[in-house]
Specification:
The protein has 5 helices and 6 strands; from the N terminus they run αβαββαββααβ. With 157 residues, the chain is α+β, with helices and mostly antiparallel strands. The chain has one domain: 2-Layer Sandwich (Alpha-Beta Plaits). Bound molecules: flavin mononucleotide. Flavin mononucleotide (FMN) binds next to helix 2, strand 3 and helix 3.
Length: 157
């Protein structure tokens, strides 16, 4: 009877749905972070993330990072702690953090070009919904810093 269609709801029927923690944030790179440093960061992160079942996308441009991370909750939380202690960026603003059972939104590694305007739109929406004073101030600083131009998406792992 457990194999009968309709016995489980859709989430239970989806064989690819797993418990994932999602962490989405933006931050500002410190002045000494150049393209080479970002490349090193991406190479390191790809290796580490694969070993920990973490996937996602990192976007960097105009001195601003935007990162989507998803994976097993314990692994993602340990990465969040590392990110908060990393001196290569500051003004870290959490845009979303949640745990749910679903398929990965970013299952594969890939490169994309993301326009600065697209990132600006995401941050402006966050500005409208954020109530925390410190996050609001940090978002405003990031937006003020963001200048128009193509952003390099640094891939998924
Ligand atoms: C913008 C940014 C994004 C990062 N993304 C990741 C990542 O996806 N995975 C990862 O393992 N480290 C990432 N790091 C590096 C971590 O902050 C940290 O240096 C790393 O997890 C090493 O931790 P360890 O002290 O355990 O070696 C990122 C750092 C920055 C500044």
């Amino acid at each position: 009877m457990f194999d009968e269609p309709g016995f489980y709801d859709d989430a239970d029927l989806d064989p690819d749905a797993i418990l994932l923690e999602t962490f989405v944030y933006c931050s500002r790179a410190t002045d000494d972070v150049d393209a080479d440093e970002v490349s090193r960061l991406v190479a390191f992160s790809q290796k580490r993330n694969v070993a920990r079942g973490i996937t996602g996308v990192l976007v960097f441009g105009s001195g601003v990072f935007f990162q989507w991370i998803e994976g097993p909750p314990a692994e993602v939380r340990s990465l969040i702690a590392n990110l908060h202690g990393d001196p290569r960026h500051y003004d870290i603003v959490t845009l979303d953090q949640c745990v749910d059972k679903r398929e990965r939104l970013y299952p594969h590694w890939e490169m994309e070009q993301v326009a600065a305007d697209d990132l600006r739109e995401v941050l402006e929406n966050a500005l409208e919904t954020t109530e925390d004073e410190a996050s609001l101030a940090a978002l405003q600083r990031i937006l003020a810093h963001l200048v128009a131009g193509p952003l390099q998406s640094m891939g998924r792992s």
